[in-house]
Design goal:
Blueprint lengths: L10 E5 L3 H19 L6 E5 L6 H7 L9 E5 L1 E3 L9 H8 L9 E3 L8 H11 L6 E5 L16 H6 L4 E5 L11 E5 L1 H4 L4 E7 L1 H11 L11 H4 L5 E6 L1
Parallel strand pairs: 1-10, 2-3, 2-6, 3-5, 6-9, 9-10
Antiparallel strand pairs: 4-8, 7-8
Helix pairs in contact: 1-2
Bound molecules: 6-phosphogluconic acid.
The site of 6-phosphogluconic acid has 15 residues, from strand 4.
InterPro entries: 6-phosphogluconolactonase_DevB, 6PGL, Glc/Gal-6P_isomerase, NagB/RpiA_transferase-like
Enzyme class: hydrolase
Function: Hydrolysis of 6-phosphogluconolactone to 6-phosphogluconate.
Length: about 240
């Protein structure tokens, strides 16, 4: 692991030689944060991202012997798909995280068959009244974070929202792939977390993130909210 470097933003950058070290180091950091939260009575709350990147981290984290029965797992964002759709982030969490010890955790999906996107967002905002302790973020190759895409229609409103979650229409944003309708965490939803991690893999994403650090406008690179939103230091974990 490389030594964390100092940046003008509250960011710690950790780099690893390979994806195995990367996944285990992140899992150990998240498990330690959960263990600290579980020292208090009540429940711990963990928000996780989807996409392809976090799967190995989820598999490592699922092996941590914690009191998972007192852990709520919820999503940073979701594509407007049924939670059993193989392209949904809920499916990824079920397949890779809710295994082994972590199978005992309580999982809140953002979508449910038969519910409108407005009702789903209202529910998510209700759940979000319980602040997340730990948030695992990912970043797209285009610098999107959660489901906040560069120059997306409605991006300004999402960034300024007082709500933790909003419905988004990312139509026309190539990074959204075939799923333009989504539900996304906002800076308001991110702010209360005491532990904020960004999981990055590959040289391209490292370059995008370095560019992000050179400015503060979230419209071209929404990942900037990960370090400009007041609150916890952003811990970036990168491997090639
Ligand atoms: O639903 C989604 O698309 C994600 O939650 C998203 O925000 C993800 O974190 C990035 O797109 C990175 O995705 P990859 O890990 O697949 O590059």
């Amino acid at each position: 692991m490389g030594a964390p470097q100092q940046r003008p933003w509250p960011v710690e950058f950790h780099s690893y030689r390979n994806d195995d070290q990367w996944a285990w180091a992140i899992a150990v950091a998240v498990a330690a944060a959960l263990r600290r939260d579980l020292q208090d009575p009540g429940r711990a709350r963990l928000l996780v991202s989807g996409g392809r990147t976090p799967a190995p981290v989820f598999r490592a984290l699922a092996q941590a012997p914690l009191d998972w029965e007192r852990v709520d797992i919820a999503l940073v964002d979701e594509r407007w798909l049924r939670p059993d759709d193989m392209d949904s982030n809920a499916y990824l969490v079920r397949e890779h995280l809710l295994r082994g010890h972590a199978a005992a955790a309580r999982f809140e999906t953002l979508t449910r068959p038969g519910r409108s996107i407005e009702a789903a967002v209202a529910d998510a905002n209700l759940h979000a009244r319980r602040a997340p302790g730990i948030v695992l973020l990912g970043m797209g190759e285009d610098g999107h974070v959660a489901s906040l895409f560069p120059y997306m229609r409605g991006l300004d409103a999402a960034l300024a929202s007082d709500n933790a979650y909003v419905a988004v229409d990312a139509g026309g944003c190539p990074g959204a792939g075939p799923w333009p309708r989504r539900i996304s965490l906002t800076p308001t939803g991110l702010a209360p977390a005491h532990t904020r991690l960004l999981l990055l893999r590959g040289q391209h994403k490292r370059g995008v993130f370095e560019r992000a650090l050179a400015g503060s406008d979230p419209r071209p690179l929404p990942v900037r909210i990960a370090f400009t939103t007041p609150g916890a230091t952003l811990q970036v974990h990168w491997c090639p």
